[in-house]
Sequence to fold (271 residues):
Amino acid sequence: MAEFIDYSVDDRVATITLNRPERRNAQNQQFLEELNVAFDQAAEDEGVRVVLLRADGPHFSAGHDISPEEMAKGAFQRIEETIPERGMLGIHEWEAKYYLGFSKKWRDIPKPTIAAVQGACIAGGLLLAWPCDIIIAADNARFSDPVVMMGIGGVEYHGHTWELGPRKAKEMLFTARPIDAHEAERRGMVNRVVPLADLETQARALAADISKMHPHALAMAKRAVNQTMDIMGQSAALQSCFDIHQLGHASAYGQTGQWMVAGMDAVKGNK
Ligand code: ZN
Fold:
């Protein structure tokens, strides 16, 4: 059974819940694997018409779990052990699967997906919200990507420019400051802002409305929009920016001997 992700289906709506609130829904490999299984279940179940992604606790997601405890075990430890022999290739491959790969796959599942976001949605949190078709934000939601502070040019999935336009994307990245729910709505990054107390009710009401539509028509409507984005270059740009991101890890490692966390301390002081 999943430890970090809850999954349920009720009246044609699958609800996927991020359930690691004590760690602010920070994501490690197990968390992402469980989330991916839940998306697969929802995609394959013919009884499911709409997917609702929500989070337990005060915050949607603090991003990738790069706490010292997590860095010292599991996936990150295994990746670091491959650096002497394989250079940065192990990092590139792991992030290609768990970050860019999962997010692109979830973006394209042939059913409407709705993210309900409250509190902080930081860096890797964007990799869960952005791939969803519709984002409902609580009035306390805030979205940020502070990865430039770690010496890297942004998270693994470069949605920024597509979601916010080039100038706001640059401001978000250059300053590491959050964009609040209302500004996100003005930019078209979220569909609507609702009071925190109404977030789940309103997201469920929208999911219920959409679930009454013809499933094949919904899949074709989604495909039409995503294909249009891809004809504009979105998938190729995401891949290209992912490769630029990997250059950031390599640069941090070259300067500090750490591909991620220690890079932050070294870079923070602008040495
Ligand atoms: Zn990375």
Summary: Residues 95, 156, 245, 249 surround zinc ion (CB under 6 Å). Residues 234-256 form the longest helix (23 residues).
